[in-house]
TrEMBL record:
Coiled-coil region(s): 19-46
Highest taxon of the lineage: Bacteria
Keywords on record: Coiled coil
Transit peptide in keyword set: no
The protein, known as: Fatty acid desaturase family protein
Keyword NADP: no
Length: 366
């Protein structure tokens, strides 16, 4: 498209947060952010490789320790300690390892064991289906109504532009259930998108459903049969701990994702926004459609560095350990271009997304 100095960046129906920028300014923004990404990617090396290997070693150590404690003792302290270790291990595997490995952030290492094409995570959702729903659909159409199925995951009303239906009155309740069972919602999520779009045949959809069934079975066999049996007389002890760890992991992942996408001030875009979208327009949409969670290194690690959701959406394939250093530079870019940089504490972001879920359960909400 032809760039002009006086053409508004977004249609009138889009949020006003970035409407003051012209196409020429957005082209400059896009070039600047492209250069930043290239700078970081060119600097990756052995220190980064050591980081992800240390995190994987930590995660596996926590899992082994947690399962060992649960199998070796039946005291109350052992249940709580083992469950805590196992919960953290599962959260690390899903967030800082699985999510980021499957984004291709570590493909540059050429390590077949830590590669987006080979990693299968500890989650009910098959990795190939998750990569399509998340990497392809969500990151391409971030916060675009009618295109990004992550907007409320098709069951929640999280924007006033969504038509209200009576079922939404119950969304504060079923959002809690969704949080506890989040991995299972993710597992059927991609098939729902493909069924809705008609992009796959009935036979392909049945094959996808069979893949989900096999992954469900493997996960259930591992956590609810094999490990409890290995616990011997502590079988029930191990079973309940595995169930608790999976539920707590699901709630944590759900909370982090909602904090990064659905706090009260994050923008949502009409579908016409992406017509003839340039690289600069795409970057602008990522900036306006995401929010960070402020905190320290431990919070960043446990969230898979999705506490830097803005930076992750700008650069999905940049390794997660680099996002903290990028964040101040992105904030400075936003200041120069007059754009909001939405970041708040964890309690505030949790309050923001739950306030939206509660408010938009009722008609209106504008």
């Amino acid at each position: 498209m032809t760039l002009t100095a006086d053409k508004p960046a977004l249609p009138r129906t889009a949020p006003a947060s970035g409407a003051h920028l012209t196409d020429a300014e957005l082209e400059k923004l896009g070039n600047e952010l492209d250069a930043l990404r290239q700078e970081v990617m060119a600097d990756l090396g052995e220190a980064d490789a050591r980081y992800i290997r240390r995190v994987i070693a930590l995660q596996r150590g926590l899992e082994v320790a947690g399962r060992g404690i649960l199998m070796g003792a039946s005291r109350r302290w052992a249940w709580w300690t083992g469950t805590a270790f196992l919960t953290v291990a599962k959260a690390l595997e899903n967030m800082e390892i699985g999510h980021n490995v499957m984004h291709g952030q570590w493909d540059w290492m050429r390590d077949p064991k830590i590669h987006s094409t080979t990693w299968e995570w500890d989650n009910a959702c098959p990795s190939d289906q998750w990569k399509h729903a998340h990497n392809v659909l969500h990151h391409t159409y971030t916060n675009v109504l009618g295109k990004d199925r992550d907007l409320g995951y098709t069951i929640l009303r999280i924007n006033p532009a969504q038509d209200w239906r009576p079922v939404y009155l119950a969304q504060p309740v079923y959002n809690l259930a969704f949080a506890a069972l989040f991995e299972f919602g993710n597992a059927v999520y991609d098939l729902g998108a493909q069924l809705e779009s008609g992009e796959k045949t009935e036979a392909e959809l049945k094959a996808g459903l069979a893949d989900i069934g096999r992954k469900f079975a493997r996960q259930a066999l591992k956590d609810y049969v094999a490990f409890p049996l290995m616990g011997g007389r502590n079988a029930r002890h191990v079973l309940t701990a595995n169930l608790a760890a999976n539920i707590l992991r699901n709630i944590w992942v759900h909370t982090v994702i909602f904090c990064g996408h659905f706090p009260g001030d994050v923008d949502v875009f009409p579908e016409e926004t992406i017509e003839a979208e340039t690289r600069g327009h795409w970057y602008l949409r990522q900036l306006l459609g995401s929010a960070d969670i402020s905190g320290g290194p431990l919070l960043h690690l446990l969230t898979g560095n999705l506490s830097h959701q803005i930076e992750h959406h700008l650069f999905p394939d940049v390794p997660s350990n680099r996002l903290a250093a990028i964040a101040p530079r992105i904030r400075e870019v936003c200041d120069r271009y007059g754009l909001p940089y939405r970041s708040a504490s964890f309690p505030r972001q949790v309050t923001g997304h739950w306030s939206k879920v509660l408010r938009l359960a009722f008609p209106g909400g504008r």
